[in-house]
Amino acid sequence: MLYKNKFIVAVPAALLLSGFATASQAATLDDVKERGNLNCGVNVGLAGFSAPDADGNWQGLDVETCRGIASAIFGDPDNVVFTPLTAKERFTALQSGEIDVLSRNTTWTATRDNSLGLNFTATTFYDGQGFMVSKDLNIESLEDLNGASICIQSGTTHELNLADYFPSRDIEIKTVTFDTPDQTAQGFAHGRCDVLTSDTSQLSALRLQLPEPDSVEILETLISKEPLGPVVRQGDDQWLDIVQWTIFAMVNAEEMGVNSDNVDEMRDNPPNPGVARLLGKDGNYGEQLGLPNDWAYNIIKNVGNYGEVFATTVGEDSPLKIQRGMNALWNEGGILYAPPIR
Fold it and tell me: In angstroms, rounded to a whole number, what is the distance separating the alpha carbons of residues 213 and 194?
């Protein structure tokens, strides 16, 4: 990150370039405000993360992240247009400006972060690549998969993870690739392969689509780290900060005990300075982002804190019933941690 205004340079050309940089950095927020809505790229349909319900309304953890960003900017979580994207389409859509942010169960890797003109913002779900098999196969370890065929979605990190893991252990596998998660699950259900591999969160979602969900199991062994989170274009520090701090506000709110039910009371009578800063009663943290000072209040009021969103989309109050695990707060046995607002 560049440290602005570290030196005062009395050179007109330098000042001119500085002006161009400032204008460029503000471009995405200005475009979103002028348009009146946020363009958010999501999965074509992954239960718990981004999928339309029976009425066509998008639901899921990634969806709620975008609704949180819209709340921070407009005070209204519904000022979002969702664009469903396949794994192959997602980065091009962001690079071309078709979407403002990609919130689509996307793994943060060095190549994606450093060579595509994109920036990952923050991790919203810590995951790992796992394997789903029929219980009838009695698979006890990954060594038992020698000679198996594995259904996998193309254009994902999972292909490289398989190539890294199995050959080095002299385990022979055959891969069967598909374009979308639904196609991958259908291939597994119809016997095109013995095993279905993906992030464990995605496996939990795809399991619900199978004709007999109770006939399969997800193996405990993971072969990768899969930190999932939103992505933005490089060259727009302000927009990067807005997306990051939307997530950080939701995590900090959970840690402070601020939720959608008590946020009004907490704002009117902050129990401590941290809550006062979070909810815009102290400081100018919204102004620093180019947002209203009640930006975080609007996020929590409209969307909820991270724990609320997790529970209703992928956790205990959802069909997926995914345990918090690594995604619990740092002071509750997990690794979820947000910088302080101060």
Answer: 15
Who's near 66: CB < 8 A, 6+ residues apart? 38, 40, 42, 80, 82, 101, 103, 230
- Give the number of C-alpha atoms closer than 13 A to the C-alpha of residue 304, restricted to the C-beta side: 13
Spatial separation of the C-alpha atoms in residues 59 and 26, rounded to whole Å: 29
**One-letter identity of residue 201:** S
How far apart, in whole angstroms, are the C-alpha atoms of residue 67 and residue 61? 10
Tokens describing residue 32:
């979103």
What lies within 8 Å, CB to CB, of 244 at 6+ separation is 121, 122
Judge whether 182 and 45 are in contact, CB under 8 Å. Answer: yes
Between CA 187 and CA 181 the distance in angstroms is 10
Instruction: Name beta bridge partners: 217.
Output: 133
Among 24, 227, 237, residue whose Cα is nearest residue 112 = 227
Q: Give the integer Cα–Cα distance in Å for 47 and 223.
A: 23
Cα-trace Rg, the chain: 22
As a whole number of angstroms, the distance between CA 19 and CA 293 comes to 25
Distance CA 173, CA 165 (A): 11
Which runs of consecutive H residues, i.e. helices, occur in the chain?
12-25, 27-35, 61-74, 90-95, 110-115, 157-165, 181-189, 200-207, 237-256, 263-268, 273-278, 285-289, 295-302, 306-313
Cα 101 from chain centroid?
Answer: 10
Interval 227-282: pLDDT, tens = 999 999 999 999 999 999 999 999 999 999 999 999 999 999 999 999 999 999 99
pTM here is 0.86
What are the tens digits of pLDDT across the range 275-319? 999 999 999 999 999 999 999 999 999 999 999 999 999 999 999
pLDDT confidence of residue 19: 39
Q: For 39, which DSSP code?
A: E
Encoded tokens for 310 = 């997790």
Tokens read off for 91: 């980065």
Of 244, 238, 3, give the one whose Cα is nearest residue 108: 244
Burial 31-53 (b: 16+ CB within 10 A, else e): ebeeeebbbbbbbbbbbbbbbbe
